[in-house]
Amino acid sequence: MEKIESKRPLIIAGPCSAESKEQTVNTALALAKTGKVDIFRAGIWKPRTKPNTFAGMGAEALPWLSEAKRLSGLPVATEVATAQHIEEAAAHDIDVFWIGARTTSNPFSMQEVAESLRGTDKLVFVKNPINSDIELWLGAIERLAQCNVKRIALIHRGFSSYRATILRNAPMWHLALEMRRRAPELPMICDPSHICGRRDLIGDIAQQAADLNYDGLMIESHISPEHAKSDARQQLTPDALNALLNEIKWRLAESDSAEFNVAIEELRRRIDHIDGEIFQLLVERMNASEEIGYIKRDNNVMILQSARWDSIVNRTLSLHKESGLSEEFLRTILDAIHIESINRQNRVMKGE
Ligand code: PEP
Ligand code: MN
User: Which CATH class is domain 4-247?
Assistant: First the structure.
């Protein structure tokens, strides 16, 4: 039989948390009715950032998931983080497990989870770690593979970032794409709910994932989002989820059209040429920084001159305000240039 993870696009939906039998079952039934959902999700052990917040209903909710599965016909998934979770969930015939961002971040937990899952035939989703470290993500996959877990898929849920943006977790698409390059055999699912943190932005992020050739989506959906006990602002009603999924265009990975291929080829050549120029200019820019380093060294002046750097940042941001480049992008590039430049001047100071 075809494995569920081969379905494209693979859609996983359900509430952040199972809160009551009624809420769990009714959400599952409404989602099944859309005909677009492949796996029903509901968290029952919730790793919360702060104590004294709703931490999920625990094992009491397992029979609700079984009931949701029986009545909706959908396979069910829940988050597991300890050996005990896995044992209890398996005893209730939960079909699919996911490993949350906080667990992927912790090698001790990952080792425990991998050993408890040893040899399982179940599908296991592994969310990216909280911080932007794909080695941790790969390490989690390797621990599972070493325990002979064969059906693994990745969930990209964004990374916490020190700079506040309107998104709850920065997508850092390049990291997910790098992960895909390193583990090309694993399906990559996007979780726009945890990236966005608010429902009005989910459609955009979901479409971006579709455009980047993701294999599916995990989206939080609650029968009555405004009453949700966790992640209320980011959950969609099953109807709203249905409407959102209807709008998403899943694009083709390739096209046979000659016209398309010629147009793409030309633009790619242009991009390659521009990239070449950008990096040549960066080489020249860093050479100039290095020369400044020699002058600072010979005059015993310190490397970091904050006022000068502030003026570079302010000038760049104001010059490019209307350029279509986002402030976040401009700041990221400026930060990278600044770090490289300081490193170069540091080497000059140390006489390297
Ligand atoms: C969740 O899916 O409800 C969840 C807790 O997600 P994450 O581990 O991505 O924060
Ligand atoms: Mn959630």
Answer: alpha beta
pTM: 0.84
Q: Which atom of ligand 1 approaches the CA of 100 most closely?
A: 8
Q: Give the burial string for 257-293 (b: 16+ CB within 10 Å, else e).
A: eeeeeeeeeeeeeeeeeeeeeeeeeeeeebeebeebb
Residue 47's φ and ψ, nearest 5 degrees, are -80, 105
Q: Closest Cα to atom 2, ligand 1: which residue?
A: 16
Provide the token pair at 113: 């989870």
Q: Which residues, judged by CB distance below 6 Å to any ligand atom, belong to the binding site of ligand 1? A: 16, 43, 100-102, 127, 157, 194
pLDDT values of the chain reduced to their tens digit, one per residue, 352 residues: 789 999 999 999 999 999 999 999 999 999 999 999 999 999 999 998 899 999 999 999 999 999 999 999 999 999 999 999 999 999 999 999 999 999 999 999 999 999 999 999 999 999 999 999 999 999 999 999 999 999 999 999 999 987 778 999 999 999 999 999 999 999 999 999 999 999 999 999 999 999 999 999 999 999 999 999 999 999 999 999 999 999 999 988 788 899 999 999 999 999 999 999 999 999 999 999 999 999 999 999 888 788 999 999 999 999 999 999 999 999 999 999 999 999 999 999 998 8
**What would the two tokens of residue 271 be?**
């991009």
Q: 18 and 205 in contact (C-beta within 8 Å)?
A: no
For 258-350, the fitting CATH number among 1.10.150.80, 1.20.1740.10, 1.20.59.10, 1.10.260.40 is 1.20.59.10
